[in-house]
Structure formats: C-alpha cells, structure tokens
Amino acid sequence: MSHFNQKLYQSTQLRQEMRINPRLYQAMELLYMPLLDLQQHLKTELEENPLLEMDEAETEMEVELQEDTKDEPLGDDVDWEEILLDGFEVGGRKEQHEHRDHYEPTPVDVRDLHDHLTDQLRLLSIPERAVRLGEEIIGNVNDDGMLACEIDEVVSGVNAWLEEVRPTAVNGAEQIFDEDDREAELADIAAVFRPYDRAEGVTMLEVVQGFDPPGVAARDVQDSILIQLRQRDEADSLGYVIVRDHFDALINHRRNDIAKELGVPPIEVQEATDAIGHLDPKPGLKYSASPEQYVIPDLIVEKISGEYMVFANDTSLPRLRISQSYKDIARDNKFTGENKDFITNKLSAANWMVQAIEQRRQTMLKVMNFIVDRQREFFERGIQYLKPLTLREVADYIEMHESTVSRVTNQKYVQTPRGVFSLKYFFSSGLSTTSGEDISARGVKDKMKSLVNDENSAKPLTDQAIVKLLMTDGVKIARRTVAKYRDQLGILPARMRKRV
Length: 500
Known about the structure:
Structural class: alpha+beta
C-alpha cells in the first residue's frame, strides 16, 4: 500500500470509528479537561439531560467500572418503573444525602491602570476641555504604562471626535434656545469644541506623566526612567546622564565604556546603574487587570507513615443521580414509544458519563502514582534530584497510548508537600552522570542557577567554568548546552554579570 493510500485508509478508518463510537472521543475530551472545566461540563450535562440531577454529598462518589462497556441501547426487557422507583442512582449508590447549595468562587473586581489614572485626572481642578484631552491620552496608554502612539495622533484622535459631536451640540442649541440666547450659546459651543493644538497635547501629557505610578505615559523605557529620575530630583545625577546619553551602553552592561567616555571611576558608574536598576521600566504592569486565574489541584500527594499517597481532589465534583421529578412521573405513567426511546438514550448517556468520569479519575491516579514512584528523590530532597521522565515511559507502564498520558497531564496540577506543581513539571529530558545515573534537565538548570547565585561577582563564571563545576558533581554536559540553559534561565553572559 502506497504512503498516500495508507493515509487515506487511516483517515477513512478514523471517520468510521467516530461514527461507530463517538463516546470514545468524548472520553478523550474529559481526560483533557482540568478540574474547573470538568465542573462546568458536568453542569452543562445536567442542563441537557433531564434524568440527571446534582447531589453534592459529603462522601466520595464510588463507581464500579464495568468492563467492556458498550455504547448500545438497553434492551426491551428493562423495567423502567422498577429502576426509577427503586431509588436507582447513576453509579449504583442509593444513599440519601442532605442537599447543599453550590457556590462558584467569584473574582474580586479590581481597578486597572486606566481607572487609576482617570481617578487622578478627575481630582484635578482643570476645565472639562482639558479633562477630555487627558482622557484621550490615558486611553492610549498601554498595559506597560507607555504611551502607545505619538502625541500628534492623540490630538488628531480627539479632534476627530469633536468633529463628530459638534453638529449634535449645535443642533440642540438651535432647537432649545430662543433667538436672543442662541448666539451666546453657539459661541460657547464654538469655544468648547474648538480643535486642540499640539501645544495643548504636550502640556496635558506632562500633567499625566506626573501621575502615579512614576514614569507612566512615557514614550519608551528610556523616557520612563528619565521621568522617574526627575521626579526624584535627580536630573543632575550621574545616573540621569547615563540614561540620557549612554542608554545603549547601559542596557548592554558596558560599564567600563561608559566610565571611559564620562571620565569617572568604574565604581561610580556601577553604583549609578545599581540605583537605576531599582526603578520600574514598565510601571503600568503593577496595575494590570489580568483575569483572575484559579488553580485547583486535580490530585493531592501526602506523606503518610513514611509513604507518599496519591488522592484525587474531586470532592467538588457533583454526584449524579436520576432526577426525583422523573421518579414522580414514573409512579403514574408507562413509558412507551418515543418516551421509552428518550428515557433509554438519556439513561444510557447518564450512566456512561459517570463511568467516563471514574475512568478519568483512575487514569490520573495511575499516572501520578507512577510519577511519585519515579520521582521519590525529588519529593524527599528537592528539584536537583528530579529524574528525566517521558510520556512514553508512563504510557508503557499504565498500558495506554502516549497521547492519552499527554491529555491526562495537560493543564492538571498536583498539591504536594513541596508545593503545587503542574503535572508537566515532572517530565523533562535527561543528561548522563559519571555514576551512570540520569539527571533531568530541570535539575541541571537548578544547579546552574545555584552556581551563578554563589559566584564571585568580580569574576563571574564563564560557560566553560560552569561545565567544569558540573563535571565535579558528576554531570556530563557540553558548553553549548550550558549556554542554551543559561539563556532559558535569563542569566546574562559572564562579561555582563561582572561587577567592579
């Protein structure tokens, strides 16, 4: 079979499988969902399937997985009245529990940078015309706190708005005021709606640049730092001169070049640049109103009697059971024809849903138990003892496909004695050691970070020096790999880390 025909056959087979067993793909979607998404999905199922209702019980949901469960309608010999009236609950539980209201966590409303700046603008005793220009400037400040366009564009934008609203104001005045007052009112409108000029824009920009946070509404990072230095009364300082006249050398850490050009000792340049380093190059980020993110661990690892135990953190998932209202209907009605088909399909879907959720739970527990067993030294001693691990190894152990393991670990979190981690955190490529064991790339990066933190700043470690130090710890690594890891960690080259 040619490569093309093989691909065509596989594609056709996939489409046939989807028609035959679409729930297989729904189960894959359930594996992919993090806990919060799964909660929302179950709520949607509760809305769409009238036979399901939510029962938030204190006890953990217990479901016995049925082997070789087939996606087939139940037979005609099913006694629906007996099922519905006998207290049947999806998952095989009959226990009664107290009903509890379910509350979603709600993020607190926070004010963003634009709100913060507008509040300060409204506190000024300035004409409404100036306020309008100030609002236009603030509207063009990005999340970093920088003015996202030239002041000429700001002025053009507010003038274009004036052109749109002026006719409405004029028409209103002509209709409301009589002939004696109309001329004066039109004159006032002409004064209020006269076009702004560039000088007004520059003046108002300077006002906004005086707002909190310091350095806001600057044209770029250099301008922001200069504004912050002026507000600190340091316009005559060495740091101000360095930022104003030697900014490229500053950001490239060429302190010796700056010292030579300015004719000052290198130690003074270093002290000045250290002070500059304490300023905020992107002052708006502290007011960034990013959406509230909730990270709820899907799994919990606890050390009990010297052993690490894995638990599913799924107590917040609603238990599902047959709706009480359908039980009441069953007391007085017989299900036949379309009604019977409807009940058959909905009950089958409800039962499958619970089975799929339990399958998801068991798969996640298998994966995490293998991770804990493989990474025991990490849980005992820390990140430097994290071992390399691949999806293929886990897939072979739990006898599932590699893509299934990828879905299980995607956007999932585990709470451990060492903190909350993404399941993806435990997967990393590895390097060999002189003892014949492997160490994960993440562990090597942590060793590198520790070496740089402890180095002599007057003689920082070169990449080759880091290679030799790692070799003393038994880690075999190439210099180019050290350079790659250093870049990934955001560590500057040795020449840029050097201090006087």
